[in-house]
Amino acid sequence: MFFWIATGIFIVSYGFIISEKLDKTKVALVGAGLMMALRIITQREAFYEEKYAIDYNVVFLLISMMIIVNILSKTGVFQFLAIKSAKLAKGRPLWILILFTSITALFSTFLNNLTTVLILVPVSLFIADELELDPFPFLLSEIMASSLGGTATLIGGPPNILIASKIQLTFMDFIYNLTPAILFVFFFFLLTLKLLFGKRLQVKEEARQKILAINEYKMIKDRSLLIKSLCILGLVIPGFIFHDKLHLEPATIAILGAAFLLIISKEKPHNILRELEWSTLLYFIGLFIVVGGVIKVGLISKLSDGMVSFIKPDAESMFPVAMVILWFSALASTIVENTILIASIIPLVTDMAHSIVPKELDFTSVVQHPTLMPIWWSLALGTCLGGNATPIGASANIVTLSLAERAGYPISFKRYLIYAIPLTIEMIVLSNVYIWLRYYIIKL
Length: 444
Known about the structure:
The protein is mainly α. The chain has helices spanning 2-19, 24-37, 43-48, 56-73, 77-88, 93-108, 113-130, 136-151, 158-167, 171-177, 179-197, 205-212, 223-241, 243-246, 250-265, 269-274, 278-297, 299-311, 319-333, 338-356, 363-367, 373-386, 395-406, 413-441.
């Protein structure tokens, strides 16, 4: 009975989140409440038992990074860099597009994707308006660059944070395995942007001169706060890189960074905390509990058994599984928000690992078995990049299009799909090539 009730709660919650009939945070919290109220998962299990509980490492890492970014954004540094890039490109729109895309990807390697687009999209709209250009090429490229950059590091996006936390991967594991993949994909992405939009991005000379006349240094609102923020960020990022050698979790390093920045910035905590994305954080908490419920009743185990029976994986070579995971997660990400998708697939892959790896090994040795690692990298690439294909595939997409519409540049669902689907397919094909070459041909 509990199996079907839990599965029903999961499917109904999933359906409402996809349809956007109700706010996803409300749906996740209702689903979590029902799971506990109906005793499918107890409150103690949901809060404290490692196998089913809320992943507090993820929650506090997000809270802390939101605090740091919120304080840093008050300095105006992001707007400064955007205007400076436009001037470095001498007002030439194609080079502005390439620079903005690169900046978005770079920022997204250590900032939340949603935060990155919230900062850069208004500036892109401003520059497109000044140059009298259609902002669509800028917005589309920034959406995709945010997911590309976010895929490259442990802290770039929720999917990677969740994978790292569940199977105990380090910051450098992601740098070594995913950053080369993203650089490979990003190079071809820029070439494709040039082919798609190069001839269309033409501006009048007076508009170009107008951009060159903007004083970017006036964008910096608080130099003292900027120096303090960069100093803290300069300690936090290396902390993430060496967290395994320091024997500290990424969340602990982020908490220390956020706490010290709050102290030295002299910002009032209630002002900073009020501006955090609490709905996103509560969505994560509710989602963890809902997924914990279906793990407990055995739904994930049944799905795992079904996948094993269908693919028939061989412990000596998991290439077919890697490809299925890559393409399935990419396809599912086009309609399912990647956090709920990754939270559902991680336990499925973990359970599958136990069926093909020697059972006498401990949990970490099982999930980090050499034959399993390409599966995790395939999952990260598929989940992070697949969401680019549709306007509802990721929160960054939804927010970007909403900002464009508010600024008077509505982008239709159809127009987005015409460009985004081919670009996303290109990214997944290139990811497929990378996984195949690196782990099954060269075997690095």
